[in-house]
Design brief:
Helix content: under 10%
Shape: elongated
Number of domains: 1
Low-confidence stretches: 132-139
Structural class: mainly beta
CATH architecture: Beta Barrel
CATH topology: Elongation Factor Tu (Ef-tu), domain 3
Number of helices: 1
Distance between the termini: 60 Å
CATH class: Mainly Beta
Strand order of the largest sheet: 2-1-5-6-7-4-3
Strand content: over 45%
Length: about 140
């Protein structure tokens, strides 16, 4: 059963699922130091939106695909390819770029292949430059 899809990569039970998902949004608000008063806050607009998740898979037992999907994810990270992120419920999160991928391989087969791989992946929302609007006016 697919849980989520990132571009061509499908995260599903029991082959390559994820255990936890963290989502974070931020805003850009900066203060400016002034003498004799509290610093005013300048609202600069939205900040980054990130999603992180951890997953565990068994490359040669449940999914039969080996490490091919993990290698594909690494290549997409290096290529900085924006990809659509869609959940099982049909929620379209928009386009995302893989910021980093880390993995921990363990329980090695006598031939040297890992039997268990834990993956930590961080995504950042792709915005393609923003709106370019400014509230500053010249008089």
């Amino acid at each position: 059963m697919p849980l989520m899809r990132l571009g061509a990569f499908v995260f599903s039970v029991p082959t390559y699922s994820f255990e936890s998902l963290q989502r974070s949004v931020s805003s850009r608000a900066e203060s400016q130091m002034v003498i004799g008063a509290a610093p005013p806050i300048h609202l600069l607009g939205p900040g980054e939106e990130t999603i992180g998740f951890t997953s565990t898979f068994y490359p040669f037992h449940l999914n039969g695909g080996g490490l091919a999907q993990l290698e594909g994810v690494r290549q997409a990270c290096q290529a900085q390819t924006p990809m659509m992120l869609v959940s099982i419920g049909g929620v379209v999160f928009g386009r995302w770029v893989i910021r980093n991928v880390g993995d921990d391989q363990s329980f090695f087969h006598p031939a040297g292949a890992p039997q268990r791989v834990e993956v930590d992946m961080q995504l950042v929302k792709y915005t393609a430059g923003g709106t370019g609007r400014s509230s500053f006016r010249f008089f």
